[in-house]
Design a protein that fits this description.
With 200 residues, this protein is α+β, with helices and mostly antiparallel strands. It contains two helices and eight strands; from the N terminus they run H-H-E-E-E-E-E-E-E-E. The chain is elongated and about 95 Å long.
């Protein structure tokens, strides 16, 4: 009887050790899939989500709603009442200090890909600050992320004054080629309205 007890204890230990060895082998095989290499994580975190990036900034103390409007070549304008098309999206529609947990006044659009042709960037004074009369100085920055770049490169920057409620101003009209390079001599600010009336 004692001999049988010793054999069952040995068998039990062998089965447990084999099960544990199998579990450790599975964990070792899954490690590369659970924890990707650090280099891949770094690449993903520094890659911007768009190719043509347009940003506007206005003073944080202003409780004003300034709208960014962008029209890509052959596309319809993107702004607060039309936040996206097949090519461009408005990612941040800043309403001033209303429902805003940050101190910055900032709007941004991104494109998916680079389309050659004329791009138009407009500002629209949707709501003014009742405590601070205009003019309001708005900073507009255009950057391009080309396939041969590691980070977006700024191609245009300008300060523009808005002086009255409802005013729409064209900040940039510029042309890009297929590689995303700014075509020399193509930049101007000839007025062209982009604002789409959601009610009309």
């Amino acid at each position: 009887m004692e001999e049988f007890d010793d054999d069952s204890g040995t068998i039990f230990r062998d089965v447990i050790l084999l099960a544990l060895s199998g579990f450790v082998a599975l964990v070792v095989m899954m490690i590369p899939f659970i924890n990707p290499p650090a280099e891949t994580e770094l690449e993903t975190s520094t890659t911007e989500p768009g190719n043509v990036i347009v940003e506007i900034h206005w003073p944080p103390e202003l409780d004003a709603d300034i709208d960014l409007w962008v029209r890509a070549p052959g596309d319809i304008p993107v702004g607060y009442s039309n936040k996206g098309t097949a090519l461009v999206n408005l990612l941040r529609d800043d309403l001033g200090q209303f429902n805003d947990l940050t101190e910055s006044n900032y709007e941004v659009t991104y494109s998916r890909g680079i389309v050659a042709g004329e791009w138009i960037v407009n500002l629209h004074a949707f709501r003014m600050d009742p405590e601070r009369p205009p003019p309001y100085t708005i900073r507009t920055v255009v950057s391009v992320m080309r396939p041969d770049f590691l980070r977006p490169v700024q191609i245009l920057e300008k300060q523009t004054d808005l002086t009255r409620l409802g005013q729409e101003r064209t900040v940039f009209r510029f042309k890009l080629n297929q590689e995303g390079k700014l075509i020399r001599g193509s930049t101007n600010d000839l007025q062209r309205s982009l604002v789409i009336d959601p009610d009309g």
